[in-house]
Amino acid sequence: MSKAVMGAAAVAVLVGAGAAGCWYTGDLFDKQVPLQLGTAQRESGLVFQWQPTSSNLLTREADLRIELTPELASSLDADLVLDKPLELYLHTRTRIMPLYTSTEISLDMSRGDLAKTLTRMGLQNWKPVMQSHNSFWNSNTVTVLSLPEANVDSDGEQLKLMPLEMRFDGDFNGSGQVALSWAGMTYRQPSQQVECNIGRVDGTAELKAVDNILMVPSSQAKVAGFSLNVGEGMKFDMQGMTSSSTLQGDSADTLASHYQLGIGQFKMAMEGETVELADTALDAHIKGMDMKGYHTLLQANADPKKDEAKLQMALDQLLARGATLELTNLAAKVNQAPVSLKGNLVLAPTTLEKLTGGDEGLNALNGQFAAELSNKLGQALPQVAPWLEHLGSIGYLKSEGDLLKADIQLAKGAVTINGQPL
Prior knowledge:
Blueprint: H1 3-44, E1 47-55, E2 59-68, H2 70-76, E3 86-97, E4 100-107, H3 113-120, E5 129-135, E6 140-147, E7 150-154, E8 157-161, E9 164-171, E10 176-182, E11 185-189, E12 194-198, E13 201-210, E14 213-230, E15 234-249, E16 254-270, E17 273-290, H4 291-302, H5 308-319, E18 323-334, E19 337-347, H6 352-355, H7 359-362, E20 365-374, H8 377-380, H9 385-393, E21 398-400, E22 403-411, E23 414-417, E24 420-421
Antiparallel strand pairs: 1-2, 2-3, 3-4, 4-5, 5-6, 6-9, 7-8, 8-11, 9-10, 10-13, 11-12, 12-14, 13-14, 14-15, 15-16, 16-17, 17-18, 18-19, 19-20, 20-22, 21-22, 22-23, 23-24
Helix pairs in contact: 4-5
C-alpha cells in the first residue's frame, strides 16, 4: 500500500472519528438541555420553553422562552401583582466539537416584556451576552455573563451602569466558584438634588452541591465605595468595605460559620450634625448549628412556594440542638473615639414557638458581653453625652482610666449590667 493511500486512509479515519465524536456530543447536548431546564424550573418556579430552530452536525440554534407567572410573582412579593405572565426571550447558538460545546446566549430584542422595557428606556442597542463552554469529558463548565455599559436619561433621571462580568467555573452539578466584577454605577436626579454612586465591586463565592442543595462554604467581597447625597441636608459616604464568610463542619453533626466585615470609613451628615466611623470591624462565629436542620432549612427556603409549615419545621430542627454566638470583636472609632463590644451568647435547645414566646424565649439565652467606650465619646459625639452621664450615674458604665466599661450578663431571662439589674 502506497504512502498516499495510507495517508488518505488515516485522514478518513480521523474525519470519521471526529464526525462520530460531534454526533455523540450533539446527542448528549440534546439530552442534557431539557434536564437542566427541568431542574431550573423546579428550583426557581419560572417556566422554561426550549424551541430549537436549527440543527446540524456542528451547530445547534434555539430560542429560550422564560416566563414569570402571576402566581410566582405574588408568592415572591405580595405587592407584585401581574395581570399576565412576563416573558423573556433569549437566542442561543452552540458549536459542537467532540465532547465539547461552546454556547453563546443573547437577548432577543424583537419580543418579550424585557425587550419592550429596554426599548422604551432607549437601550435597544444594549447587548448583554452569556458564553458557556462545556466539557462532557470531565463534566466541567465555564460560564461568563457580560453586561456592557448602559446609560439612561429619562424624565430628569440619569442612570449610568458600568460594565459587569460574572463568571462561574465548576461542574454540571453546580459546584464550583462564582466571581463577580462590577465597575459600579451612578444615579442622578438633578431636580431633587439626588445623587448616588457605587464604586467598584468585586467578589467570589465557593459553591458546593450537597443533596441537590447549593451551599456556600466560603465567600469574599470588596466594595470600593458608596455615596448618597440628598440635597444639602443628608449625605452618606462609605469607603473601603470588605467582607468574608466561611461555613464548615464543626463536628460530625454540626456546622460552624465565621463572618468578618470591615469598613475603612463611613461618614453621615444630617441636619448639620456629622458622625464619622473609622476602622469599623466585625468578627463573629456561630458554632454548633445542627447540620441536618441547616440542610432542611435550605431546602425549605429554596422552594419557590415558601411553605410556611416546612420552614417552621426546619427552624425547629435547627433550634433543637441550640447554638453559640461568639462575638470576637465589634469595634469602631466614632469621631475618633474608640468603642468595642466582645462576648458570647449561648442558645439552649428550644423551638421557634418558645423562642418567640416572650419570657420563655429569653430563658433559652445565656451570655456575657464586655463593652468598652472611650471616656472622650461624649466630647466626640455631644448628642450622646447626657445619655452616657445618666448610664454612669446608675452604675451601668464604670470609669476605668480612659475607658467607660460595662459588663453585661444574660442568664435565664435576667439581664444585669455591672451587677445592676436591667
